[in-house]
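Subject line: Sequence and fold of a protein, written as structure tokens
Body of memo: The sequence and its backbone structure tokens, given next.
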Amino acid sequence: MSSSLSVYLLDVAATRALVGSRDEQLLEVIRSNFGDDLERDDDYFKHLIAEGAPTAYEALCAVVHGGPFSEKREHAFQYGYAYRRLCSLTGSFLDNSCFTPHRGSWLSVVDDGLAALGVTAVSVEKFSDADLPAPLPYTDMPGCGEWTPQAVARALEQFEETKRAVDASGEAPPLEPEVVEAVMQCLGWMRLAAARPGFGVIGFRS
């Protein structure tokens, strides 16, 4: 079974602040302009909705209002996907061609590649975490993680430090070409974020 990443460039703090914001105008814009997407998601999860899970719009309303949330843990996935929808609407989708689809431990392999280049401040495996903003309930699907502006800045510093060391020694860490490509894609995300104050990366694995 394969997995995918959805990765977004956005103002991390502002995006997290949408949770519990009670922004009715935002909800109305989504309902008016993205109703077909909401219906498509409801059709995909119709068997779970029939068992009591919230619809896509109901989950979105709960996220924006900070609750109430279903007490059933098996329904919590809808709130994770609702938060991903907010990220997709307020941020810019980043090229994830090196990660979608992927299998097995690929994210850890790329993290090892980043570490080999001295970059430890960020992790693509982190996008598998359950790091949703409070008070959203725990769910392991979709996974969610973020790279804060501070983490991005430090990661780029680490890469530049390694680059200078490689230039001085003439010896680069031996990495497989596909790992190098994925690492370069991650660095591209970071450079885009670093160019905009307050911006970082929020990613989802599903």
The chain has one domain: 5-205. The chain is about 50% helix and 10% strand. Strands lie at 5-11, 92-93, 143-147, 199-205.
